[in-house]
Design brief:
The complex is a heterodimer of chains A (115) and B (110). With 115 residues, chain A is mostly beta strands. Chain A has strands at 4-7, 10-13, 19-25, 31-37, 43-50, 53-57, 64-70, 73-78, 87-94, 105-106, 110-114. In chain A, strands 2, 4, 5, 6, 9, 10 and 11 form a seven-stranded mixed β-sheet that branches. In chain A, strands 1-3-8-7 form a four-stranded antiparallel β-sheet, with no helix packed on it. Chain B has strands spanning 9-13, 18-23, 31-38, 45-50, 55-56, 61-64, 70-75, 84-92, 104-109. The chains are: A mainly beta (115), B mainly beta (110).
């Protein structure tokens, strides 16, 4: 069973479009995250949700809107896509937000290409 | 979080131990050292973490110097599947996020 899953795996779209990426975790975790990995391979956190509530927004443009319908899901909606949004987006989850030994489990990533 | 410095890349032979260094000279007392790795086209994977004592699990060992300014991740018997980018991350215990640097690209050769 996949612990953290994302759909779609690949997403190719035109500038200006709106798209969504879905994430689901079956680990029973309380906290979920979105990370972005750019072309230089640097991974940066975008958002963190704890028990369906937004905890962290790391100065991400408001074209990006995460939505958590329940603890097991954290979807990422992107409006008016720009070329610079092309990246790999990773979803992750952890049992809680922080604490000793709190490890994050990552999904396989969604490769977004904006043309 | 304290910054970490890792070599850009390293090679190691299959079946041999791989020793991955990490410098974190500005680490503070409440910061832990975490290691993650990212195999090509996959999401990052947790390996191990520690505060000041050496740690071992089924994947690796973590050796932290007494002054805590550096650490070494040891993969005891590297296999081709260990080829990945390895990230050393220093994190305050109650911090919510992982701050990834450039990591070390480890290539295990047959």
């Amino acid at each position: 069973d996949t612990a953290v899953s994302q759909t779609p795996k690949y997403l190719v779209t035109q500038m200006g479009n709106d798209k969504s990426i879905k994430c689901e975790q079956n680990l029973g975790h309380d906290t979920m995250y979105w990370y972005k990995q750019d072309s230089k391979k640097f991974l940066k956190i975008m958002f963190s949700y704890n028990n369906k509530e937004l905890i962290i927004n790391e100065t991400v443009p408001n074209r990006f809107s995460p939505k958590s319908p329940d603890k097991a899901h954290l979807n990422l909606h992107i409006n008016s896509l720009e070329l610079g949004d092309s990246a790999v987006y990773f979803c992750a989850s952890s049992q809680d937000m922080a604490g000793v030994g709190e490890t994050q489990y990552f999904g396989p990533g969604t490769r977004l290409l904006v043309l | 979080d304290a910054k970490t410095t890792q070599p850009t890349s390293m090679d190691c032979a299959e079946g041999r131990a791989a020793n991955l260094p990490c410098n974190h000279s500005t680490i503070s007392g409440n910061e832990y050292v975490y290691w993650y790795r990212q195999i090509h086209s996959q999401g990052p994977q947790y390996i191990i973490h520690g505060l000041k004592n050496n740690e071992t699990n089924e994947m690796a060992s973590l050796i932290i110097t007494e002054d805590r300014k550096s650490s070494t991740l040891i993969l005891p018997h590297a296999t081709l599947r260990d080829t990945a980018v390895y990230y050393c991350i220093v994190r305050v215990v109650d911090d919510y996020k992982l701050s990834f640097g450039a990591g070390t690209t480890v290539t295990v050769r047959a």
